[in-house]
Amino acid sequence: MITTTHILKKKRNEKITMITAYDALFAKIFDGEVDMILVGDSLHMSFFGESDTLGVSLDSMIYHTKAVCNGAKESLVVCDLPFGITQDESEAVKSAIRVYKETKAQAVKLEGGVEVANIVKGITNLGIAVVGHIGLKPQFVRADGGYKIKGKSDKEIEKLFLDAKALQDSGAFCIVLEGVKSEVAKEITNLLEIPTIGIGSGVDTDGQVLVWSDAFGFFNEFKPKFVREYLNGASLVKDALKKYVSDVKSKNFPNESESY
């Protein structure tokens, strides 16, 4: 089983791979192929069909994390803490404890920097591993007025550095950098002693993460610039489905060998 110690040792030695999963079926396919599996609150969009991640509940995150842990036995599993949890330190700590008690996840992830440093410290002091998340933060999309790239101004760059250092000092073992200008992400990665996982932040982070439905062509509502599509999944499934429908209607399925 990949542990947080393994991830820390990859810093400056080997690129870290992470992908999302929301169920046991895909977790089992991904298991051992990637270093980390993230049960992201992105499930509220790609799995549930909502327009943002804000409405997902802690119960839903725990449910899906249980499913992923049933499928993943080698990769390190991370559970996102949903929107609203980190507004109160006591509530955040209780939520992290619930994740650890009710699932086999090895870590929790939360969005924010300096403003959540005390929460990260409170969680890690209990022996719960934390992944930080700064830059473009999907849970802040309404306040930010959309999905906006970070690190374009001196003020934003200074905030990113302060956030990254605060998360490291508070005990986070790695940090997701989302939608950060590539040159800034590179500087942050070089500054920190813990790994950075990039998404839309260039090639110089310590690793990369993608949402599985983006990477494999199942989410067609829009395609972010940073996504590379490795499979035209939706078209392949539709073609197979059409063949199934055709076989049923033509009485080609089931045949004699497929019948009792």
Automatic annotation (TrEMBL):
It comes from Helicobacter ibis. Belongs to the PanB family. Signal peptide: none annotated. Catalyzes the reversible reaction in which hydroxymethyl group from 5,10-methylenetetrahydrofolate is transferred onto alpha-ketoisovalerate to form ketopantoate. SUPFAM superfamilies: Phosphoenolpyruvate/pyruvate domain. Its cofactor is Mg(2+). InterPro entries: Pantoate_hydroxy_MeTrfase, Pyrv/PenolPyrv_kinase-like_dom, Pyrv_kinase-like_dom_sf. This is 3-methyl-2-oxobutanoate hydroxymethyltransferase. Binds 1 Mg(2+) ion per subunit. Pathway: Cofactor biosynthesis; (R)-pantothenate biosynthesis; (R)-pantoate from 3-methyl-2-oxobutanoate: step 1/2. CDD domains: KPHMT-like (cd06557). NCBIfam families: panB (TIGR00222), PRK00311.1 (NF001452). Gene3D superfamilies: Phosphoenolpyruvate-binding domains. Transmembrane segments: none annotated. Mg(2+) binds at D41, D80, E111. The active site is at E178.
